[in-house]
Design brief:
The protein is mainly alpha-helical and 114 residues long. It has helices at 7-20, 27-30, 32-71, 76-86, 92-101, 103-113.
Length: 114
């Protein structure tokens, strides 16, 4: 009996991965082994960078809070220490947004902890 091979499924799998590598340069987009390796490595980068994105945004929020706090005459670390001591539980994302878009509200929070 001849060997049965599911060409439909294997071709579909290759076609799916090659469609995911559209936009890559050179052999990375159309040579099966190169495209597959590139796609797998891209998944690794995506996983890593989802973690780095959180790190980068936290750093950005801290910079914005620090800049706004220094306009009010205190440093970031002093402000955060006083916020925790006063029992004001507000996260850095919201605090940075207030510093950027609602400076009066940020000033009110700083005045409350001074």
């Amino acid at each position: 009996m001849p060997r049965s091979v599911n060409h439909v499924a294997s071709r579909a799998k290759r076609k799916r991965i090659l469609s995911l590598t559209r936009g890559y340069i050179g052999a990375r987009k159309n040579v099966w082994t190169v495209a597959k390796n590139t796609w797998e490595k891209g998944l690794t980068y995506a996983y890593r960078d989802r973690k780095n994105k959180k790190r980068n945004f936290r750093a950005l929020w801290i910079q914005r809070i620090n800049a706004a706090a220094r306009l009010e005459g205190m440093s970031y670390s002093v402000l955060m220490g006083k916020l925790h001591k006063a029992g004001i539980e507000i996260n850095r994302k919201v605090l940075a947004d207030l510093a950027m878009n609602a400076p009066e509200a940020f000033k009110a929070i700083v005045a409350k902890v001074k």
